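#lab-general

N.A. 3:47 PM
ok so I finally got the sequence cleaned up, no stray characters, all 405 residues accounted for. can someone with queue access submit it? mine expired

B.Y. 3:52 PM
send it over

N.A. 3:53 PM
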Amino acid sequence: MKMIDIHSADFKIVEKKKIWFCIPLALLVVTLICGIIYGFVYNGNVLNLGMEFTGGYSLTVTLGGALDDDATREADEQKLTDIIEHADTYGLTYNEVPVTGLKVMDITKQGEGENEALRVSFTSSYTQTEMGDTTTEGTIIYELVSILDENFFADDPYGGSVTDGGSVSASVSSELLITAVCGVIMALALMLIYIAIRFELLSGIIALICLVHDIAIMFMFMLVFHIPVTSTFIAALITILGYSINNTIIIFDKVRDNVKTMPAGVSANQLADVSVRDTMVRSINTTATTFIMVFMVWLLSAIFGVGDLVNFCWPLMAGLIAGAFSSVCLAPSLWAMWKTRSEKKAKAKPAEAITVAAPEEKKDELFGDINFDEPSDSAETAKSEESAEEVGKEDETPPDNKDTV
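B.Y. 4:20 PM
back already:
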């Protein structure tokens, strides 16, 4: 099997820029289609926002016995989820209309010994007044408790019950989100200033465009697969911001070095391709090793049921792939494209100057050495003769007509 030497391979990254630009656009189209579908299916909830952003409702369920048996606990959680999410099939109605749209977000264990209980957190498309609580008759939660008594606790030999239930406010407030967004914008501005000073303003603008691309891909990934967006997603965004900008700066640093070492006359496309080739091994190694570690964390979290880590690793893996793509494919292509246009504009300016000077040259070809700005010698001679004649006429005065005596 023939081994590929990456250091000597002839990469044509910039020449394929149309393909690289079409990939994010295709993903955007898929995301828009999924968003429209989810908008109809989930009553306008395009993004699967967690209870930390939207708030929700909870029920505290005691089973009257210990929850040490994992198999029994898993079966209880599954049955609770089925009753809540398919409450309409169990006869739950509100104003004689079947209740749908309840979605279980999380089930956690609370307490110890005889006080052990399951806390079920779920979201709803109904208003807080319609949902109510465990003490308000006629509300959805009150009727849901009755259904649990009939269909869940009937087989419980320990006589379990729902001890608490009601609304849960959003833990991530709007002020916290605004502060986080302002912090990210400030970080991006400082990155732009640093890259503009360290390299050039064009490199800084392209780096920010690639970062926006990475963030957009992470949002699209969460939307398409309808993964819950929790506070861990914000942590994943900040992580990718720092990781992706590092990969992009490495490539721009190699571009700057190659500008000094490569012979004059090399095109921007060739310069970008060589820089990508020189940093390809480094980009592959760093992205692959990081991705493998994140994947292992995701796998272990999924096996042991650590939901927060699973929700953190999903967007992180998507961001790593998007960051590698933008650093290797998008950033060099954008840089070479803008550099090529700048060079063409610079060459066009002397051509315009030659075009403006052309009429003067044409005039010289037609009239030879005639100077239109200064009078010729013949013209001066003619003028001098005319002035002399005028002076002679003035000197010839007629004789006086006086009578002699």
